[in-house]
User: Which sequence fits this backbone?
């Protein structure tokens, strides 16, 4: 059941998006998110969506997978859209019934919001779909280590992230093993009310915790044995390098940003 | 009537995805009451998958499983019965201990069966005596025990359910020879006293050969052979060819045979080896 989680999932591939430098992907994703919020009308928003569609096509990630990333936040999207519909009072009235007043302005704002949030979510999931978790943390570390004063802190956090990510599948496997072992001893994990079910989890969670601590000790020991001592003086085996691809990516987003600003000025109509 | 029977049992992992793997293919086997079956096979041969079917932890993709003549997937009730009739002890069972005391941990299974206090206590005590868990240990926290002691407590936890079929997955892995012998002796004693059916999964036959009545050899999701220990060893070279380890003494005799000396090939204990060499010497065959 835990295998069904898709947030932060990585889909291995060899597309141009996959091959880009993780640092560049991080920066460009952030810039992209900023320009989503710079959009003031449907023209500029259309450009932003078009840019996203091009990138999705280049990444060769199946559309089905992309749509799946929106599913978990469907509630938030609906909520925002409904709120906007009721509270924005510009434009012509569409519906006037007791306390409900819906105007054209409200509907337009709601649609605008939906597109905006979807673009935001798809863009950020695209980053995790095309970049392995280890590369993302490495990228973050490299970006921040440019600032000397935060180098050690960033390294520690990045290392913690890497280890945590590395152990998620291990812990899931462990969880399933222990669950099976306790089921074999007649533990009933599937029936009963909430309290009973929570209690039934104790025989699974206690061994899982103990195993995690044991693993943590062993890992710490193994790291020390290999002379791990934090960030200072540590070099990398694989150095990240910006390539032509990254230059193209940079130019692409720069153009999109320029386009958005131009369209905002050209079509003064503000939502 | 056989205590355990499978009928064209097939199991596939991740059905309907590109990762679909057939872990068991058309398994038909019958085990009689009171047998001690050793299940061997190299890693990934399907032996662990097979035993997880016997108490209903895995649902077969195709085929049926009968425990005591009862199809275990017939209803929820039969499935629950199968859980208690077939006691399954996983590999490295010491990592499933969780209670505050050893006593409470061994009592977990019987408690889930809904027995009363007295029954639970007598079962815990008898399981503890089988596994050599002392009274002093029963009061301790399971986390204060040594690795070998934890293993015995965990096995006692399954034995206390008094299953008709006791299945142990690699019960001796990670133990030293002394601990290994102790566990095997314990399992043999348990079977002799209670008359229950026992299955031991292992990837090496050396230790189980001494106590098993029949050996089930798994290879690539299928049954390769299911026969007595002697018969299985008659084909020792085919065991080696599928990546299984045979006792050192068997290897010696296989080599002798290869060099043209007329020895039997189903030798698997040192005693057998000695009598075989005696026989050859009486017949005047030179060994060198």
Assistant:
């Amino acid at each position: 059941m835990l295998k069904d989680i898709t947030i932060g999932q990585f889909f291995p591939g060899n597309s141009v998006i996959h091959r880009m430098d993780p640092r560049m992907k991080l920066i460009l994703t952030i810039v992209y998110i900023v320009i989503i919020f710079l959009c003031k009308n449907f023209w500029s928003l259309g450009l932003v969506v078009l840019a996203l569609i091009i990138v999705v096509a280049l990444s060769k990630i199946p559309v089905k997978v992309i749509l799946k990333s929106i599913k978990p936040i469907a509630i938030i999207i609906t909520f925002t859209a409904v709120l906007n519909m009721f509270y924005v009072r510009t434009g012509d009235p569409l519906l006037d019934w007791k306390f409900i007043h819906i105007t054209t302005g409200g509907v337009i704002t709601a649609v605008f919001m939906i597109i905006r949030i979807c673009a935001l979510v798809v863009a950020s999931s695209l980053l995790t779909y095309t970049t392995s978790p280890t590369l993302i943390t490495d990228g973050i570390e490299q970006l921040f280590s440019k600032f000397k004063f935060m180098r050690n802190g960033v390294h520690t956090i990045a290392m913690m992230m890497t280890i945590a990510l590395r152990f998620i599948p291990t812990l899931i496997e462990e969880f399933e093993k222990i669950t099976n072992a306790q089921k074999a001893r007649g533990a009933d994990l599937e029936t009963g009310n909430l309290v009973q079910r929570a209690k039934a989890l104790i025989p699974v969670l206690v061994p899982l915790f103990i195993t995690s601590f044991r693993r943590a000790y062993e890992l710490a020991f193994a790291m020390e044995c290999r002379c791990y001592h934090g960030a200072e003086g540590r070099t990398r085996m694989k150095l990240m390098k910006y390539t032509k691809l990254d230059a193209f990516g940079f130019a692409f987003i720069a153009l999109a940003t320029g386009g958005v600003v131009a369209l905002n000025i050209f079509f003064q109509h503000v939502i | 009537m056989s205590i355990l029977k499978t009928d064209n049992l097939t199991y596939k992992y991740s059905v309907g995805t590109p990762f679909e793997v057939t872990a068991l293919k058309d398994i038909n086997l019958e085990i009689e009451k009171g047998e001690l079956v050793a299940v061997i096979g190299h890693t990934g041969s399907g032996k662990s998958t097979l035993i997880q079917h016997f108490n209903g932890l895995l649902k077969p993709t195709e085929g049926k499983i009968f425990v005591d003549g009862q199809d275990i997937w017939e209803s929820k009730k039969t499935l629950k019965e199968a859980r208690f009739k077939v006691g399954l002890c996983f590999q490295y069972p010491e990592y499933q201990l969780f209670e505050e005391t050893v006593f409470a941990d061994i009592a977990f299974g019987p408690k889930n069966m809904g027995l009363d206090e007295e029954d639970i206590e007598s079962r815990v005590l008898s399981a503890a005596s089988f596994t050599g868990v002392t009274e002093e240990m029963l009061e301790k926290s399971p986390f204060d025990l040594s690795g070998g002691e934890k293993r015995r407590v965990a096995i006692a936890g399954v034995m206390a359910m008094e299953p008709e079929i006791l299945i142990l997955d690699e019960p001796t892995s990670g133990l030293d020879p002394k601990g290994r012998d102790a566990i095997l002796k314990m399992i043999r004693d348990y079977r002799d006293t209670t008359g229950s059916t026992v299955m031991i999964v292992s990837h090496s036959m050396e230790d189980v050969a001494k106590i098993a009545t029949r050996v089930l050899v798994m290879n690539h999701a299928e049954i390769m052979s299911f026969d007595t220990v002697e018969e299985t060893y008659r084909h020792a070279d085919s065991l080696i060819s599928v990546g299984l380890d045979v006792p050192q003494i068997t290897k010696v005799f296989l080599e002798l045979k290869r060099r043209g000396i007329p020895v039997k090939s189903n030798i698997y204990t040192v005693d057998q080896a000695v009598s075989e060499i005696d026989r050859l010497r009486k017949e005047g065959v030179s060994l060198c």
